[in-house]
Amino acid sequence: MSFGQIGYDLAHLLGGGVLLMSFVLLYQRRMAAVINAFAIQGTLLALAAAWAAHAQGAPGLYVTAVLALAAKGVLIPLALHAIVRRLDLHRAVETALGIGLSMVAGVALVALSILVVLPATEGVRAVARENLALALSVVLLGMLMMITRRNAISQVIGLMSLENGLILAAIGVAGMPLVVELSTAALVLMIAVVAGVFFFQIRERFDTLDTGSLEEHRGERR
Amino acid sequence: MPLQWIIVFFPWAGALALAAIPDLRRAVAANVAVSAVTFAMAIALTAMPFAEHGWTRTDALNTPFVLVAAFVGLTTAVFSAATLEAEGFDHWRIRAYHAAYQVFMGAQTLALLADNLGVMWVAIEIATLATVSMVAVHRTASAFEAAWKFFILCGVGIALALFGTIVLYLAAQPLLTEETGLSWAALMGVAARCDPGTLNLAFAFLLLGYGTKAGLVPLHSWLPDAHAEGPVPISAVLSGLLLNAAMLAVLRAKSIVGANPEAIAPGPFLLALGLASVLLGSLALWRRRDARRFFGWSSIEHMGIAAFAFGLGGAAANLAGLLHLLGHSLVKSAVFFGVGRAAQAKGSQKIADIGGLVATHPALGWGLALAIAGIAGLPPFLLFVSEFRLLAAAAAAAERPWLALLLALGMVVALAALVTVLQALCFGPPTPDAADAPGGWRSVAAAAPLWLHLAVAAGLALAMPAGLAAMLAQAARIIG
């Protein structure tokens, strides 16, 4: 289990690609483009997992790669496209925070995660800690997306891109037990199912997927 | 198969069977039967010596919680059998409700018993997903808002907890062998030699992640709404059980980080989050108009008290914290049984619409009054013992005795709010009834769980069995 120079570079290239797609997710305004960016992120994650499987000599990670490709690269994006078409949202343009501002916030979050992770993990191998910094950036950007978007589908994509960051972190740690990755993948699917049910029910009630319209119903009005 | 696994898989098998029963009468009877068998297994588990089996373990820390979880699961199933008709479910929702209930109970037990931190994480996520769908089951606008908030906030929280778990493994990885993986016992064994910086990072994420699920401020805002929507039995198990499982996960993380002398001391973080929850929770009680949201906020306050106790550390404070979690489970679910029945009788869960219960429904009114007094920390219930012991331990803490003052302030503010609501709900002028009280066996089955919980909470406070006391004292040392 040795990391040559190419292995080191390629792992970072793919991790960086996943992070780049997080930025793309932040600034896309059309629903269809957001879903496509999420699909590309899922595919890059699958490649990163496959490369980690090869480099670490851990065949279990190929399973993670296949699951990530099937679920996040193909099935969930297709389902989301179907929902968007069915609800006639594909021309919708939405953003709650200006694009420039969300880019600045995104860069600040990446800087924050590097400043937090690198000094804190000095006792750990270099490839693992740099990978961890990338993964934490993806997690934080996913959260930023959930905060800045008001559309229910975008919020769920933010959550799933956050979970992409988690898997990126898990595959970077050599020898991480497979149970976590398998279950994560399975549970993301379940989350998507639950969320799908929600979309339809929210639509039925409010004629919009804008979660801002939910905030009236706290049950505490006089 | 060891009993520790059967007690997890049996409710899940029961969930499959319950999903196939569309008839209300048979479904509620089967639900009670499954819960009763689970409770019997929990008692048997208590009598067995502590052991590890694969991904699960029993020790002094989790065994009392498994027992209380199975007990509350059984009484809640009985309560649900008596009151479910009033929810007006069609046969699909009857199936979904009972299946989700048993999936939740199995996942809850697994979360408590898990030795592997990855398995614990998965179990808490399954328990969350099972309850999210139940919160939304009435399909009103407020139910959707509550479920959406629950789903999104807990989704983020649970994601942070997984990140923390991964970082924890990264810290311990050079010292672990292939088989032990994420075992808590193995991590405890090597914790003292782990890289302290990485451990700190892991603890920050685990505390924030599982703290969200435990309802600690500042990530608490899902909790009151999730407790106020959905069927009443779900509020009882959410508040009584799920919060304990999340708090236990925080304690497992704390014990690992605490075992490394070079890592940051985890205590002050728990103290800060706990104190913030106590103060915000007790102040927020004064602004509530919805009875179930009111008691949801009270859960935030009580989780804050428990977190404060564990943050203070030491045998006395830890013991007080454990007693507080157990007492809160028993008394808070009793409160929800009472409030749920009152809301059904009066046709509204607004505090202003429920009044004078003692005059119109004497058994319910007095039971609810005693339960609210118990949750306020008045004697003779278990929460009085735990709050008294905690204040004594906090005042005796040499470095920061002023913390006891802040804690007492929060407790008094909450006590005053609870007494005000107690008087409004139970005494005061009676409000008109909207529905007839259930007759026959239902009236007994709906009232019995409340009084049984009160009796157990008072019994444990007045005469704690020696075996349980010894177990809790041992658990207080495990937390460190």
UniProtKB/TrEMBL annotation, chain A:
Membrane topology: Multi-pass membrane protein
Subcellular location: Cell membrane
Protein name: Hydrogenase-4 component E
Parts of the chain that traverse the membrane: 6-27, 34-54, 60-84, 96-120, 132-149, 156-176, 182-200
Top-level taxon of the source organism: Bacteria
Record-linked InterPro entries: HyfE-like (IPR038730)
Keyword annotations: Cell membrane, Membrane, Transmembrane, Transmembrane helix
Keyword check for Transit peptide: no
Organism: Roseomonas fluvialis
Automatic annotation (TrEMBL), chain B:
Keyword Membrane included in the entry's annotation: yes
Cellular localization per UniProt: Cell membrane; Membrane
Listed InterPro entries: ComplexI-like_HydComp (IPR052175), NADH_UbQ_OxRdtase (IPR003918), ND/Mrp_TM (IPR001750)
Domain spans labelled NADH:quinone oxidoreductase/Mrp antiporter transmembrane: 114-406
Broad class of the protein's primary localization: membrane
Superkingdom of origin organism: Bacteria
Keywords attached to this entry: Cell membrane, Membrane, Oxidoreductase, Transmembrane, Transmembrane helix
Membrane topology type: Multi-pass membrane protein
Transmembrane segments: 6-21, 28-51, 63-84, 96-114, 120-138, 150-172, 231-251, 263-285, 305-326, 363-385, 405-430, 450-473
One Pfam family cited in the UniProt record for this chain: Proton_antipo_M
Record's keyword annotation contains Cytoplasm: no
Family matches, as NCBIfam families: PRK06458.1-3
Protein name per UniProt: Oxidoreductase
Organism: Roseomonas fluvialis
